[in-house]
Amino acid sequence: MTMVQSSNESFTFVLLTPLRSLQLVAASKAMSIIDSEAAFERKCKELRNCDELFNGLDRLGIKDFSTLASTLGTPPTDEQFEELGNKVYGTPAIGQLALLRQLHFEATTLMVASINEQVKSDSSDPTSLSKRLPAAEKQSRLENQSKRLAGLRIVGELSPSHQLLDLTNSMVKTRVLTWVAPSKCSKRDDEVQANIKLSPSKLQIERATLKVAQIPVATVADVGSELKLQWTLQHRGMAMDQGRFLDWAYREDWVQGLLQSITKESPSGFGTIKLEQMVRADKELWALLVQQQTKSLRPSNDVPVLNEDFKKLTTDPRVTTFVLPLPSSSRPVAAPKATPAAKNTAAPENNPNKKRKVTKADKNCPQELKKYTCGVRAKVTFVGASICRLVAQNSASGTPANT
Prior knowledge:
Blueprint: E1 2-5, E2 12-15, H1 19-27, H2 37-46, H3 52-59, H4 65-69, H5 78-89, H6 94-120, H7 135-148, H8 162-174, H9 188-196, E3 201-206, E4 209-214, H10 226-243, H11 248-263, H12 275-292, H13 307-313, H14 317-320, H15 360-364, E5 373-376, E6 379-382, H16 383-397
Antiparallel strand pairs: 1-2, 3-4, 5-6
Helix pairs in contact: 2-7, 5-6, 8-10, 10-11
């Protein structure tokens, strides 16, 4: 059932959604507060700081909000509340019955809101069905992981961001396995520092109502070196281990194998392994894993279902071929050839040491005039030879020379 408020009238339309659509959406719903046992336990213990309510409901098998909402009729009667109170408390007081009524009302409200949101979401888009894990559920999973991975202190570089935890959890609930790029595998410290800054806002219209929504800050991890790439893969491994669809040990063996391929000495004529090759190998492994995985990702007896398939693909030739040394493209640089000295093609007058060609005027020049020389514009000119040419020209024309 979907409630739609009219923007022009003061009445409400009630739309009946087909049962088939509800079943399709409910089959692929993600973890929310109504399914979280940790969130239900925290809420019960917050009421009057008493564990009696939670312990009584736990004995009856009521461990989450969805179960409590379906325990009584709709609407519940006073007789049903008294009967449930007798099973939980024995002989309940009026205040204890009031706490039970309050908890049941909250469980029913959360149940209706969750189904309403699932119906409105697009079932063809798996990301629209993803939910944020409740804070109590994240804390509970972290405590269980710390007990399971004894010796590891899950802080700093081993603490994944909440954004990454929500992303891996959505894959388990929607049964849509995808490759998470290392740039999306940030740590919790980066997320905390990013949330200190003011996030931008956007205006959106929802049911003829103008709302101001905060744009979530998406943190991007740095993968600029081998060490930083290892850290991002560790963040992803921790998040997947918390989601219980891939154990930490299997993922750690894969990462260590990638790092060892970098430290190995390459054969002669081959280059070293680059970071791009490691990322391509990791991407190919998950692509093959998606092709093979057709069943649910929920763990069986707390054993992840991807362990065996993941371990086999780490040694698959289709994956390991991406981390093989490639032929080196650099060739030995040949020594530059010695260039011969350029021939001197300068004019004869620019080289005074070169033997000058003797002209006819030089031969007819008197010996006394040959010793007078001068340099004009970096040229050596024989003054005596010039005078002789002038005398010879004047003699031929019959004109006396002016001295």
